Amino acid sequence: MDKAGIYLSVPFCRQKCSFCNFASEVHPFSQLPRYLHALQTEITGRARLWRMAGIPSSGDPPVNTIYLGGGTPGLIEPEALGKLLGTVRSCFSVDEEAEITLEASPENVTAENAHGWASSGVNRISMGVQSMVEDELRAVGRRHTAETVGRAFSVLKQAGICNLSVDLIAGLPRQTEQSWETSLEALLRLDPPHFSVYMLEVDDDSRLGSEILKHGQRYRAAEVPSEEEVAAFYSAAAERLRADGYEHYEVSNFARRGKASLHNEKYWTGAPYFGFGVDAHSYDGERRWANTDSLEHYLEKIAQAQPPVVDLKTLSAQEKLEERFFLGLRRRQGIRASRLNSDFDVDVHQKYSAQIHQFREAGWLETDGDWLRLTDSGWLFSNEVFAGFLA
């Protein structure tokens, strides 16, 4: 079995951003110690809990990535973080050189925290920057400034953590072509090894998205750029980053050579990963399952020595094939038809001939010998392509 990844969910934030559609909340921080204890209990008792949930054990594969997401796991005290990672190491065979990523907000990066993170084994930071323009940051509830980001970079490098990733969001309220360029250029001067560039998701799961769908005025919804502008911002960023030497290796991700996210690659290549905590998801090669997205329900289940799993599905061969399509096409490399033909006893070009023809004609998909991949313009319409193959 491929080496696995571990995801640890820490759904605590000091302030909920208006664009956020994750299962994170402004929970009282008095609950954080109890939550971390429950998280460690779930990890140590995983075999029994999974068995109770109907998930057969196939043994624990070696682990080479750990990812702490949220929420804002950077809010965990370094000592508590060390204990949490120690629990993971005691339960799994973790590679000595494993990639260990911590999501952090720029304002959480202090010298004390950075050295504590490094001491616990964290060697990669994913920083939620989103914008380097103060007006945009305040519009969505972010607390940092461009200066805060610069100081965070300096502090982390002094602590020996140089593998840094930054998030940018195209489509924030009040964003313009000029302000987007300002954010991009300011971050390029800091030279992070990795960028994640997202287009604003408009759905009912975030306050801003819900307000946009209702054509309301709250959360500066009326000041969000048009879909055409957001697409143009994304395309401009992709072009600028590629020109600066970043590899556009996945729809939203750009990396210097050798700095792609090893953990996120597991999601796109079908490698196993195991999630612990609120709203954490897992995949063992045959099954997908997810924990409850309610903190109260999660704590209650763990206290009762019951599994927090609320969704479990064993994938059919057809579902596995479909996943290989829409996950594989997210990557610049694309998907190899002969590999799918062999793995699933299917002729991909025959089975999906209509979709391949349709998306090639649209200029969204290209074939290169044995490979199918999205074109540069196809990145913008990836959801339409994925939906077409799933249909």
Describe the structure.
It is globular and about 55 Å long. The strands form three sheets. Strands 7-8-6-5-4-3-2-1-9 form a nine-stranded mixed beta sheet, with helices on both faces. A three-stranded antiparallel beta sheet has the order 10-11-12, with no helix packed on it. A three-stranded antiparallel beta sheet has the order 13-15-14. The protein folds into two domains: 4-269, Transcription Regulator spoIIAA (2-Layer Sandwich), CATH 3.30.750.200; 317-390, Arc Repressor Mutant, subunit A. It has helices spanning 32-44, 46-52, 78-91, 111-120, 134-139, 146-158, 177-190, 207-213, 227-243, 262-269, 295-303, 317-328, 337-344, 348-351, 353-361, 382-390, and strands at 4-10, 63-70, 94-104, 124-130, 163-170, 194-199, 247-250, 253-255, 273-276, 281-283, 287-291, 309-314, 335-336, 365-368, 371-374. It is built from 16 helices and 15 strands. The chain is of the alpha/beta class and 391 residues long. The two termini are 30 Å apart. Helix content is 41%, strand content 21%. Helix 3 packs parallel to helix 4 (111-120).
Any key phrases for this structure?
alpha/beta, Arc Repressor Mutant, subunit A, 391 residues, 41% helix, Transcription Regulator spoIIAA, 15 strands, 2 domains, 9-stranded mixed β-sheet, 16 helices
